[in-house]
Amino acid sequence: MSACVPTRAADPNRTERTHPPHSPPPGGPRRFRIAGADVSASIAVFLIALPLSLGIALATGAPLQAGLVAAAVGGLVAGRLGGSPLQVSGPAAGLTVVTADLIQRYGWRTTCAITVLAGLAQLGLGCLRVARGALAVSPAIVHGMLAGIGVTIAVAQLHIVLGGTPQSSVPDNLRALPAQLADMGLAAVSVSALTLALLLLWPRLPGRAGRLLRKVPAALVAVAGASTAAALVGLRLPKVDLPSWSNHALAGLPEGPVLGLVAAVLTTTLVCSVQSLLGAVAVDKLVAGRPGLPARVRRSDLDRELLGQGAANIVSGSLGGLPIAGVAVRTSANVHAGAVSRNSTMLHGVLVVIAALLMVPILELIPLASLAALVMAVGIQMVSLHHIRTVTRHREVWVYAVTTLGVVSLGVLQGVALGIAMAVGVALHRLTRTRITHEETEGVHHVHVRGQLTFLAVPRLSRALHLVPHGADTVVELDGSFMDHAAYETLQDWQKTHTAQGGTVEITGRHPGTRISEPQAVTGCRCRPWTPWRNHQCDRPQSASPARSFRGGTDRTEPDPTGTGGASGHELVRGISAFQRNTAPLVRSELARLAREGQRPSQLFLTCADSRLVTSMITSSGPGDLFVVRNVGNLVPRPGEESGDDSVAAAIEYAVDVLRVRSITVCGHSGCGAMQALLSSEPGGAQTPLRRWLRHGLPSMERMADDSLPWGSLAGRAPEDAVEQLCLTNVVQQLEHLRAHDSVARALHEGTLELHGMYFHVGEAEAYLLTETDDGVVFDRVREADLTA
């Protein structure tokens, strides 16, 4: 097996260290150490894996010990050999239907043999280095398969929740459901209801105590709480039965028709491989969202991941365990718990082994109805509304629907086959020949896509993107008019990972040869290839002629349309021309819709007039998204003060009472000139318009000087200087001014409006959101996890 393990590519930026022959290694002998973050993460994953492994084994009809064996082997073998360091493998809900069908057809020992053969097939695929070919499967098919499996699991486990026994198929379970409802067991229903209630309510506990308690996984709390309640009340229910390990059934020789066994091996291999590889890609996305972690954790090696999963399935099947794949729930918990290496995954496997040997009396107190409720909830969650909206937006809802219905009514392999056939039929309507090329020009890597970009081109796109070394400047040119979900997800995930590792990515539009960043670098120009907005103006030398323009690297002389001969007028006309040529064709239909329907923004964004703050860039917003008010110092005059300018108050009233915005954000920024002017101003002097306006910032000065109020911090650190402290304090003070406005106070009382504080550090290009705690005011970095919290 070692002969086909993928070799690690040399990093051109890495400096190799050489040492004289026979000299001792630097720093003395290396010691094996486990980071504290890995230990805590492994405990969190273990607490989730233990009840889920037992529940999945129950749902498949396998011996309950098989779930513990698979969880331990997934942590130790796949964790050590896999190519995704932070992915956690084990018995997955996505394999439940496949495994249950195999056990009913061939028995448990043959199912274990099929798992071993599937592992061998995965090893062969890993040696052939075809892992990225699995990504050609449209995400609509994968999500449809998982949704169909989720429906099958939920309907089957519902019978156990009601105190009965599930049938062999979804149609049979649905036909038997009325009779089961008429003869439900109250004890089983009570325990199941308590389990579901704890699962639902535990993540929503309020307050500081709730934040502490939520660190304990809801799955563990639900099963432990239901088991404790059943024991205290004395309910007589079927419970977990773990026979002696000496009687544990191991794999036997496969028995059955050859074609049926081959189809079973292929089905298991397909489901295990696709789920694990997509999980590894998702891990890279999660890692890229954690600052500092991408430099410590390597990007997933998909061929090595396939080899590791194959080895784990061979071991698990041989030891009488369930099939193994990457598990999204445990992997997400591992990353969010702070894991930094594969040691957390392996240590969680060790903890499962310890629990399986020493905690048998405790595990046997768990009612089967509680485990069934837990697995039913997992099955329901597999039908994701987010996935449905995504495939609908990418015009692949028919692929999703056909796959889901096929899996529910016919089986996993048949449903996936129908989904693939539907996806091919849909692609035939869109496809033209797609060419993807990669070349390097003057240190910048160009990936050019000619034609439509669909899931069939994803393997070629992925290969081209992975030819780009870490940290390189990259331009991706898309000439086609269509990109499906699979290609979009591949491109976006790679872009996030590449930028997190220090590289830069620029994605151009449809027009061949037209770069989004204009102009190209010339003598004295400070523009860079990664400038992500159109018509960025260069800082040219003073000797440069104002009438000279650089478009796409072409030096050309143009007349001055303004007649002034000034560079500013020429730049304005040049910018308008670039908009009409490149951007207007792309946004014309959207602006026409907004012109017909009127503006309906959801947010009022109040920020400084500083030219370095580009609101659409910071918030990734477009036409109609934000109602923006800008002024010097992002100030909100308190109502009732004579200001000579009611524009801010009028904008607030219009946004809240007419536009019905749902939130107002006050955004300050680093190096604010208004705050500097406030700090340096002296009493007296001429009352210029600027000084009269800045008096609305004096309450912020008073707040900063008040020792009874805590100073704000920026991501846990103190402000660098008085200017930064005043910038932070000003955001808090202007929010108080907002609350004093009648329209805002009324909307806050009705619960239809939220206020947010934000701080943008210009030098770091980092956004911070305001959080008011008992310990003071904190501005924390905005992370992708905030969107799913």
Automatic annotation (TrEMBL):
- Kindly indicate where the leader peptide sits in this chain: none
Record has Transmembrane helix as a keyword: yes
Instruction: List all membrane-crossing ranges.
Output: 39-59, 106-128, 140-164, 184-205, 217-238, 258-283, 397-428
The SLC26A/SulP transporter domain is annotated at 37-393
Q: Does the keyword Transcription apply?
A: no
Location of this chain's protein in the cell: Membrane
UniProt-listed Pfam families = Pro_CA, Sulfate_transp
Family as reported in the entry's similarity comment: Belongs to the beta-class carbonic anhydrase family.
Instruction: Provide the function of this protein.
Output: Catalyzes the reversible hydration of carbon dioxide to form bicarbonate.
- Please indicate which superkingdom the organism of origin belongs to: Bacteria
Keyword list (alphabetical) reads: Membrane, Transmembrane, Transmembrane helix
Official protein name in the record: SulP family inorganic anion transporter
Membrane disposition: Multi-pass membrane protein
* InterPro entries for this protein: Carbonic_anhydrase (IPR001765), Carbonic_anhydrase_sf (IPR036874), SLC26A/SulP_dom (IPR011547), SLC26A/SulP_fam (IPR001902), STAS_dom_sf (IPR036513)
Q: Where is this region: Disordered?
A: 1-30, 533-568
